[in-house]
Structure prediction request, 298 residues.
Amino acid sequence: MSKYLSFDYLYNIVLSEQVKLKIEKVILVVAMIGFVGHLILIYLKRYGLLEFFEDSNFFDNPIAAIYTPFSFILIYEVYLLIYYLPRSITTYITKQYEIITLIVIRRIFKDLSNLELSSSWFDIKNDINFTYDIVTALILFFMIYVFSYLREQLENPVATTTENLQIQQFIRIKKIMATYLIPIFLGIGLMTFGRWLTDSTPSNISSVIKDVNSLFFDEFFAVLIIVDVLLLLVSFFYTDQFHKVIRNSGFIISTILIRMSFSVEGVLNNILIFASIAFGLGILWIHNKFVKNLKSLD
Prediction:
């Protein structure tokens, strides 16, 4: 019993509702400070009071400053992803989709700061990227809405005593995974931040920030793929229902597609992100139809 109590204590330290609220407040304060700090650097450079970032366009347009608070918001979203892991798998996958959509939204603010308004819109790389990103963001937002709608469609059936016990055991396993994901998340964050400090200079800060973001999310989603596979294998101890196995396997494929998107740029990046959520949405829609059909046969 003491072992379980000690684990519950550790879980509550990093993933309780109270801790989540505290982290949310801290992230919001840091995000506002980062936004104001970025704006100050932009205007110091504009008025010739700062010469460190002369070769970087990351400090030319005030719109680019929005990139900074969004980066901190994404950190909180990654924490929420881990926080929701012990809950339903569809809620956990929804958070993955929300994170990749926020990454696209954040990129739009960076695209806006580099726009060149001219009649040759589709001949300018930055303008084309902005077009791709803004259309992708709208489509992703709608698909997440549909995914959330489908997630709420099916009512949970009344579980037997044995099923309740199995569900509680599975939730405890997911809590253990979530608890160990926190130090992994912090470790990846510290490593990428350390590389940023080592590699960044005033002249290449824009490219380094992009590389660090890609590196962090690439590695973190690689960890998520491992977690998803482990959850799939563990779930076999509690269910062998075909539709649930296919659903969980499909979500792993969706996560892999998201991870692959970090290794490419341009329209291919947008296509992979779109494909990942579209595939997950299709899997969930067919799963729900399958469940309703089984209910009608009972």
Notes: The CA atoms of residues 107 and 210 lie 10 Å apart.
